[in-house]
C-alpha cells in the first residue's frame, strides 16, 4: 500500500507502508547506526519522534525477546529505505513489520532516506506526518505549521510508581526520566540495590531512601520542560554522589546554573567519537539527544567540562568542582553501540564507596 511522508517545509516522499496503517505525526529525526533498530524503536528517548534509519536495509535479524530497552515503545513512527521480509537470526522471534503492527507503530519504506537525511541536516529537525497517499498535501503542511509538539514526554514514559530491583551492594536511587533498561542492567550486573523512582520524586523522598548514590537517567524532550527535576537535583547535590546520563546530564547542568539549547539536528547513532579531556582518550559512543549544554554558560558555574564531541565540539561530559557528581551526554550502557565507556559505571561505584569511607571516618572521629 502506498503511503506518503509530508514535512512541514512542503517536501513529500512517497513510499510503501509497513507496520501500522494509522496516521502519525512527530518530529522527524535520523539515526546513523548500522545495527540496533530494535533498541532504537524501544528507546523511550524517542518518545514523540519519527525516526529515519540511515542504514539502507533494516530488519535483517528480526526482533528478539532480549534486546528491548522498554516494554512499550514510545516512538511515533519509523522510516527506512528497505525492510527485510525474511529475517535470519537464531534469536529472532518475528519480523520488524509484524512487531510494528502488534505495537500499532506506523512505518514507511522505499523512500530516499539519504535525501531525507540531507534535508534534516540542512533545515534541522522537522515536523512530519506519515499518512495515506490520498491526503491533501497543502492542508497537511498548514496543519503541521500550526501544530505544537507535546512537551510532556517525560511524564509519558517515566514509571508511575517506585519499584525495587534488589541487590546486595550499594543502594542506588535511579530517577526514571525515560530510562533505558540497559542502565538498570549495568547497575544490576554490579549487584547494586536499585530503587527506580518516578521523574517527579522530590529530594526529600529520595534522601529518605538512604541511597549511597543517585543516578539520573536518559529521557526525551527539552530538559527545561522538567523543572521539578532541576529542583530535586539542587536538593540532593552535595549530599549524595550523583551520576547523570543524557537528559540527566542536561538537568544536572541546569541545576548548577548552566543553560541548555536545542541542536540543529542532534546526535543520534552508535558511532560518535568523544574525547576525555583529562587523558585525551577517544571513545566511540552511542548517542540520542536533540539538546545540548551551552559552552558559554559553564564559566560562571562550579562545573568543569570533562568530555567533548569530536564532530562538533559540543559538551559531552561534566563534573562538579566540589561535590561528588559527574554526568555524560552519551550512553555508556550502549544498547545499541560500542561499550567503550562502560567503565563509567565502575567510576560511579568508586565514587559512592569513597563517599561512604569518608562518612565512616567522620563517625569514628
Automatic annotation (TrEMBL):
Enzyme active site: 246 (nucleophile), 331, 333
EC number: 6.3.5.5
Record's signal peptide: none
Domain Carbamoyl-phosphate synthase small subunit N-terminal span(s) in chain numbering: 1-131
UniProt keyword list: Amino-acid biosynthesis, Arginine biosynthesis, ATP-binding, Glutamine amidotransferase, Ligase, Nucleotide-binding, Pyrimidine biosynthesis
Pfam families in the cross-refs: CPSase_sm_chain (PF00988), GATase (PF00117)
Region feature (CPSase): 1-171
Catalyzed reactions per annotation: hydrogencarbonate + L-glutamine + 2 ATP + H2O = carbamoyl phosphate + L-glutamate + 2 ADP + phosphate + 2 H(+); L-glutamine + H2O = L-glutamate + NH4(+)
EC class of the enzyme, as a word: ligase
Pathway linked to the protein: Amino-acid biosynthesis; L-arginine biosynthesis; carbamoyl phosphate from bicarbonate: step 1/1; Pyrimidine metabolism; UMP biosynthesis via de novo pathway; (S)-dihydroorotate from bicarbonate: step 1/3
Record's keyword annotation contains Ligase: yes
InterPro entries in the record: Anth_synth/Amidotransfase, CarbamoylP_synth_ssu, CarbamoylP_synth_ssu_N, CarbP_synth_ssu_N_sf, Class_I_gatase-like, CPSase_GATase1, GATASE
Record: residues binding L-glutamine: 45, 219, 221, 247, 250, 288, 290-291
Taxonomic superkingdom: Bacteria
Family: Belongs to the CarA family.
NCBIfam families reported for this sequence: CPSaseIIsmall, PRK12838.1
Quaternary data: Composed of two chains; the small (or glutamine) chain promotes the hydrolysis of glutamine to ammonia, which is used by the large (or ammonia) chain to synthesize carbamoyl phosphate. Tetramer of heterodimers (alpha,beta)4.
Function: Small subunit of the glutamine-dependent carbamoyl phosphate synthetase (CPSase). CPSase catalyzes the formation of carbamoyl phosphate from the ammonia moiety of glutamine, carbonate, and phosphate donated by ATP, constituting the first step of 2 biosynthetic pathways, one leading to arginine and/or urea and the other to pyrimidine nucleotides. The small subunit (glutamine amidotransferase) binds and cleaves glutamine to supply the large subunit with the substrate ammonia.
Protein name: Carbamoyl phosphate synthase small chain
Taxonomic source organism: Bacillus carboniphilus
Gene designation per UniProt: carA
Amino acid at each position: 500500500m502506498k503511503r506518503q511522508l509530508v514535512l512541514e517545509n512542503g517536501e513529500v516522499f512517497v513510499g510503501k507502508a509497513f507496520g501500522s496503517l494509522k496516521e502519525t505525526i512527530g518530529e522527524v529525526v535520523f539515526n546513523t547506526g548500522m545495527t540496533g533498530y530494535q533498541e532504537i524503536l524501544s528507546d523511550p528517548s524517542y518518545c514523540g519522534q519519527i525516526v529515519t534509519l540511515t542504514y539502507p536495509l533494516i530488519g535483517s535479524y528480526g526482533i528478539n525477546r532480549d534486546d528491548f530497552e522498554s516494554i512499550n515503545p514510545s516512538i511515533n513512527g519509523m522510516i527506512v529505505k528497505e525492510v527485510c521480509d525474511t529475517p535470519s537470526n537464531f534469536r529472532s522471534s518475528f519480523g520488524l513489520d509484524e512487531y510494528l503492527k502488534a505495537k500499532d507503530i506506523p512505518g514507511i519504506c522505499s523512500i530516499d532516506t539519504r535525501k531525507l537525511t540531507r534535508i534534516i541536516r540542512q533545515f534541522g529537525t522537522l515536523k512530519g506526518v506519515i499518512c495515506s497517499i490520498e491526503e491533501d498535501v497543502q492542508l497537511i503542511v498548514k496543519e503541521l505549521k500550526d501544530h505544537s509538539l507535546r512537551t510532556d514526554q517525560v511524564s509519558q514514559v517515566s514509571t508511575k510508581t517506585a519499584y525495587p530491583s534488589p541487590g546486595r551492594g550499594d543502594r542506588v536511587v535511579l530517577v526514571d526520566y525515560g530510562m533505558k533498561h540497559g542502565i538498570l542492567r549495568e547497575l544490576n550486573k554490579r549487584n547494586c540495590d536499585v530503587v527506580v523512582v518516578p521523574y517527579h520524586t522530590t529530594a526529600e523522598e529520595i534522601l529518605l531512601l538512604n541511597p549511597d548514590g543517585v543516578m539520573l537517567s536518559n529521557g526525551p524532550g527539552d530538559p527545561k520542560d522538567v523543572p521539578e527535576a532541576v529542583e530535586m537535583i539542587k536538593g540532593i547535590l552535595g549530599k549524595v554522589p550523583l551520576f547523570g546520563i543524557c537528559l540527566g546530564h542536561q538537568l544536572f547542568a541546569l541545576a548548577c546554573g548552566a543553560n541548555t539549547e536545542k541542536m540543529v539536528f542532534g546526535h543520534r547513532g552508535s558511532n560518535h567519537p568523544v574525547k576525555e579531556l583529562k587523558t585525551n582518550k577517544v571513545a566511540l559512543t552511542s548517542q540520542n539527544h536533540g539538546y545540548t549544554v551551552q559552552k558559554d554558560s559553564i564559566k560562571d558555574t562550579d562545573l568543569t567540562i570533562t568530555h567533548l564531541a569530536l564532530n562538533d565540539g559540543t559538551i559531552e561530559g561534566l563534573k562538579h568542582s566540589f561535590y561528588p557528581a559527574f554526568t555524560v551526554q552519551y550512553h555508556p550502557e550502549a544498547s545499541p553501540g560500542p561499550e567503550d565507556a562502560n567503565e563509567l559505571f565502575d567510576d560511579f561505584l568508586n565514587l559512592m564507596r569513597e563517599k561512604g569511607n569518608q562518612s565512616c571516618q567522620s563517625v569514628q572521629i
